[in-house]
Amino acid sequence: MLKVYDLIDKVAQSKASVLITGPSGTGKELIAKAIHYESLRKDSLSSPSIAAPCRNPFGSELFGHEKGAFTGAIAMKKGRFELADGGTLFLDEIGDMSPPLQVKTRSGSCRKWSLNGSAEPRPSKSM
User: Fold this and answer.
1) Residue 45: strand pairing partners
2) Which of 18, 11, 44, 15 is nearest to 127 (CA)?
3) How far apart are CA 107 and CA 113, in angstroms?
4) Fewer Cβ in 10 A, N or C end of the chain?
5) Quick one: average pLDDT of 96-122?
6) In total, how many domains does the chain have?
7) Following DSSP, what letter does each residue of the chain receive, concatenated?
8) Torsion from C-alpha of 112, 113, 114, 120, nearest 10 degrees
C-alpha cells in the first residue's frame, strides 16, 4: 500500500493524463480523487456519469455542442472536457460507451476536442 501512496504523490505532481485500471470495486475512484486532491489542479473535479453521455447525441455531455448541432441544441453548451480544463475529469466505466464515443474521448485525453457540430478543435488551456 505504501507503493500506491508513493505513486499517487509522484503522479499528482505531473501534468500527465492518468489511466487507472482494475476490476470493479477495487478503489479506482478513490485513487483518482487522491491524485486530484494532491495535485495543483485540486480546484476543479468533474465526474460525470458515463451513462449520460451515452444517451446524449454524439456525447454532447462530454464534448459540448454548437447551437443547432442536433434537434434540441438551442444554444452552445460547453462539455465536461472544457469545463474541467486545467482540473481533473474522472471517467469511470469507459467500456460502457459506444466505440465511436470512446475514440472521440481519446482525442479529449490528448487535450484537444471539438464541440459537436463544429470542425474547429478546441485546445486545452492547460497545455
Assistant:
1) 88
2) 15
3) 6
4) N
5) 70
6) 1
7) -HHHHHHHHHHHTS--------STTSSHHHHHHHHHHHSTTTT-EE---THHHHHSGGGHHHHEE-TTSSTT--S-EE-HHHHTTTSEE----GGGS-HHHHHHHHHHHTTEEE-BT--SEEE-TT-
8) 10
Confidence band, pLDDT 50/70/90 cuts, at residue 107: low
Q: How, if at all, do strands 45-46 and 88-89 pair?
A: parallel
Band of the pLDDT at 9, cuts 50, 70, 90?
A: very high
Residue-range definition of the domain harbouring residue 30: 2-123
CATH number at residue 99: 3.40.50.300
What pLDDT is stored for residue 127 in this prediction? 47
Angle between helix axes 2-12 and 28-38 (nearest 10 degrees) is 50
pTM of the model: 0.67
